[in-house]
Design brief:
Oligomer: heterodimer
Distance between the termini of chain B: 52 Å
Number of helices of chain B: 17
Strand order of the largest sheet of chain A: 5-1-6-8-9-10-11-12-13-14-17-16-15
Shape of chain B: globular
Largest sheet of chain B: 9 strands, mixed
Order of helices and strands of chain A: EEHHEEHEEEEEEEEEEEHHEE
Bound molecules: iron/sulfur cluster
Chain lengths: 269, 430
């Protein structure tokens, strides 16, 4: 285990994509402290901000208020990062493997354009969770994101594959322009969910407010959902028994796009 | 003395046929302008009525102010350059050079007015045209969330509604004008059809129109919360499909209401869909004089229209991360340079408060809320009156601003150039 403890709070945003298991593995703590970070417009060393202890194994624990520290675990391919505190923007963006756990809130674009791996956020997440950057054709493409709290706007925008689970509420445009994948929202699903979606599933447990371009198809018990819920339960997610038993209303859309997407709304107890 | 063909740099219309009368080095008469343009031009004089600069509220010389400004900016680790909407392109170019040199974030008023249009453009593309085409060809004009009668007073008469054009021989009689807004505004009088939608429901309306234009049947209940009836939407969709040349003008009512860039993306997509039926174009109703210019300058220099960050030495773009409201609101910027704009009066309170907390340098032609809180204030000559350069009209057509009145103050371009020079020297020394 390699432990990083924040000792100097960055006065301006700190871009620290160096904090990944890939960069730490096989290094001594002195070598890790020498890794480059960007403090605003100046280059600095990781050791200027963090006290590093440990052995350079691909298992990293970070302590402190990291709300200003961007890009933690961005692009990582392996190992594990645990953040004890809040994490800044772009947490795990474009990661392709490994696992990130946050015992706090995460900033905007957590898991944006990720290609694999898992992100668990105990608190809330910001906007663009698992989404696409502006002008980018695709968001998340494989992987799993679980947020216990709520998330902001454009959750999973243009996502291509993978699963996003939000325990609380989501903001507007959840799954907008989604290409495929699954988004489960256990709290309130925000307005305009699935706008422009081609394929993919958005699952809600409240009565959704739908765009005019979604149409009721049928009420049934989706088999894939039972398997997905069981899988999530095995990963430690709380899943109510009645979510397995009851039926779901299927609305297909977005009819201005491909129309092969769906919003599945649980029928209720 | 009378000066013809003066270009007005006040709003995005950039009227270029004004006549100005000068008496004793003072503008005493303005012809062909609207009330806004006249008020902007009248009373400007060649005399010095303010100190050339202020440092901590005390009068100072230009040299001293440039020195302090350069020191502040080169010591900052996350400086912000913001504004630039009411100055000309040559000055804007200096500001971009300075941002590059400092590793700063540079953003313009676009991010709080038509930034969403820029974002939509990157996603959908921008099917647009010039105002000349509107005048000569457009037989259907739709204004969405825009009130040109008050914001762009000569827009209707010069470019869009009343003029006779090549293929619009009878002028107003050959055009249909539709206004979509959340309340009847002064522009409603100029419209044949006024459609009042519910506040914050622009996206749903546009989305329903897209569905209708694609031939989908909608239920009355599906459009219930838009504020319009299905029949109204069907009528509008029908007009859009059957016109010869339609233009959708999108205003801040659309770009700044709930949904923002998604609303504009929806508008652009709607226009794109209409290409299956007829010729259609979309034009964002850009407000301030040369806000279109800074988008163009930033785009050709960095590839991005606003919200550009140079802290890693190369340009990066991410609205929400590198836009002024966010950089200030989160308390990240540690120094600011404001050019030809008054963010303290216009940005949200937290962002404005941050400008008062950090060392701020302001360049402006006159005092403003921002110059009141700035550590360094430099008075500059007004663009289009006492400084000449390039300005972009809201349809991206460049025009030349003229200088017809001498000024005791330097231009924005000159002051920014001197700051660039001084910062370069300071950098070389370190
Ligand atoms: S419409 Fe705009 S550009 Fe034309 S005179 Fe009025 S303020 Fe100036």
């Amino acid at each position: 285990m390699t432990t990083l403890r924040l000792k100097t709070w960055p006065a301006v945003p700190l871009e620290a994509e160096a904090i990944t298991p890939d960069r730490f593995v096989g290094k001594t703590s002195a070598e890790i402290e020498a890794l480059p970070v960007h403090h605003g417009n100046q280059e600095a060393a990781l050791g200027d901000f963090f006290a590093v202890s440990g052995d350079g194994t691909p298992d990293i624990a970070i302590e402190g208020d990291l709300a200003r520290v961007k890009l933690i675990g961005a692009g990582m391919t392996q190992g594990q990062i645990t953040v004890h505190g809040d994490a800044g923007m772009h947490l795990g963006a474009a990661m392709s493997g490994g696992r990130i756990g946050v015992h706090g809130n995460a900033g905007d674009w957590a898991g944006a354009e990720m290609r694999g791996g898992q992100i668990y956020i105990r608190g809330n997440a910001g906007h663009g969770l698992g989404g696409a950057y502006r002008g980018s054709p695709q968001g998340m493409n494989r992987g799993l994101i679980v947020v216990a709290g709520s998330a902001g706007n454009e959750v999973g925008s243009a996502m291509r594959r993978g699963v996003i689970v939000v325990g609380g509420n989501t903001g507007d445009f959840t799954g907008a322009f989604m290409i495929a994948g699954s988004i489960l929202v256990f709290g309130n699903l925000g307005e305009r969910a699935g706008a422009g979606m081609k394929r993919g599933s958005i699952i809600t447990y409240q009565t959704p407010k739908l765009l005019p371009t979604f149409r009721y198809a049928c009420t049934y018990r989706p088999v894939f959902l039972r398997l997905l819920l069981r899988e999530l339960r095995s990963l430690g997610q709380e899943i109510a028994e009645e979510w397995f038993e009851r039926r779901y209303r299927r609305y297909c859309g977005d009819l201005t796009a491909f129309g092969k997407g769906e919003i599945l709304a649980w029928e209720g107890p | 003395m009378q000066i013809d063909h003066v270009v007005c740099a006040f709003c995005g219309c950039v009227c270029d046929d004004l006549t100005v009368t000068l008496e004793d080095g003072r503008v005493t008469g303005v012809k062909q302008a609207c009330a806004l343009g006249r008020a902007w031009l009248l009373g400007h004089s060649a005399e010095a009525d303010q100190p050339p600069a202020l440092i901590d509220g005390q009068p100072a010389s230009l040299e001293e102010a440039v020195e302090v400004a350069a020191q502040i900016l080169s010591q900052a680790r996350y400086p912000l350059i913001y504004g630039l909407s009411s100055t000309y392109c040559e000055a804007q170019r200096q500001a971009v050079a300075l941002a590059d040199l400092l590793g700063a974030t540079i953003d313009c008023c676009t991010s709080v007015c038509h930034g969403p249009s820029g974002i939509a453009m990157q996603v959908v593309g921008e099917p647009t045209c010039t105002l000349g085409e509107v005048k000569n060809r457009a037989d259907l004009l739709i204004y969405w969330g825009s009130n040109p009668a008050e914001s762009h007073p000569l827009h209707f008469a010069r470019y869009a509604v009343t003029p006779k054009g090549l293929f619009i021989p009878r002028g107003r009689k050959d055009r249909t004008v539709v206004l979509v807004d959340v309340r009847p505004t002064a522009s409603a009088r100029a419209a044949d059809i006024f459609l009042q939608i519910k506040p914050g429901r622009d996206f749903e309306c546009l989305w329903a129109l897209r569905a209708l234009i694609r031939g989908l049947d909608l239920e009355e209940s599906a459009v219930a919360d838009t504020g319009l009836t299905l029949a109204q939407l069907q009528d509008l969709a029908g007009r859009m499909k059957s016109c010869r040349f339609g233009v959708l003008f999108v205003g801040q009512g659309l770009t700044q209401s709930r949904g923002k860039q998604m609303n504009t993306a929806a508008a652009f997509m709607l226009v794109r869909d209409l290409y299956a039926h007829t010729k259609f174009a979309v034009i964002p109703m850009r407000g301030h004089g040369n806000v279109t210019g800074i988008d163009n300058v930033l785009s050709w220099q960095t590839g991005y229209p606003f919200g550009v960050n140079f802290s890693r030495g190369y340009p990066r773009f991410n609205p929400g991360e590198f836009t002024a409201v966010d950089v200030l609101g989160r308390g990240e910027a540690d120094a600011a340079l404001i050019v030809a704009s008054d963010p303290v009066a216009t940005l949200p309170r937290v962002a404005a408060r941050r400008l008062a907390q950090i060392p701020t340098v302001a360049l402006d032609t006159h005092g403003s809320e921002t110059t009141k809180v700035a550590r360094v204030v430099i008075t500059t000559a007004p663009a289009g009156i006492s400084a000449e350069g390039t300005i972009y009209r809201m349809d991206n057509v460049p025009l030349r601003l003229r200088k017809f009145l001498p000024s005791p103050y330097p231009s924005d371009e000159e002051v920014l150039g001197r700051i660039v020079e001084r910062v370069t020297q300071l950098r070389a020394r370190n």
